[in-house]
Predict the structure.
Amino acid sequence: MLWQGRRESDNVEDRRGIGGGHVIAGGGIIGVIILLVKFFLGGSGNDTQLQVPDQNQPLSTEEKARQDQEVPFVRTVLAETEDVWTQLMQKQGVTYTDPKLVLFTDATQSGCGFAQSATGPFYCPSDQKVYIDLSFYDELKDRFHASGDFAMAYVIAHEIGHHIQKLLGTSDKIDRLRQQLSDEEFNKYSVRLELQADFYAGVWAHYEQGKGILEKGDIEEALNAANQIGDDRLQKESQGYVVPESFTHGTSEQRMHWFRKGYETGDINQGDTFNTNDLNNG
């Protein structure tokens, strides 16, 4: 990914090393696989909160210096999403309001409650902010075997996809269903919400073509990341078996399919994950 030298977004709030509390809020791009074992990668930030011990630690000088090298990348990717979605939302008759991206260490306060790094990157619709602990970058490479800068770009683009859902009213509609359905029934809608965010990430990647930013292998990095964080794969690795009724983000196959569909079509109107009977080929 040839990102150096491009515009960096000013919509980044750096709270690294500040610390902030003892409650996990949000689903992360991966979500909750087992109640007390959180896997990483963001969701919409509306999940039930869990009480956990304080884990705030100041950043070491070495770690801060290393992360400081990653901040310009995050700012650049965010700027790229701003440019693409401002134009696409205008075509939909919607004004694109730039979300804030909050960098934090260990835990911080969000509009959805206290957020902890164990949740992974997530979007909070209440304050329209994306929350990321940059230590997740290492988790993505080392734990989930999803290396490459475009794998991390996909993570950011997925969270911005949740912002698009907020602007279009989709996430509010789904949130209202939460009070009407059982957890198992609501999980089905959660999966469709997450797959649509994957689709929007693919749409963004589509419009990065021709801008001199994508390199050979970048899309494969994103698809590999989507494959590594499917509910079926994570459950199999964590507990040895799969419980489809508890899926909240979609299978590896589904996540790759919807990202690929967004990338290949670039058409926001083809991402209706809520009105298809086949999420593997919709």
The chain has one domain: 12-54+61-266. The longest helix spans residues 61-91. The CA atoms of residues 42 and 163 lie 12 Å apart.
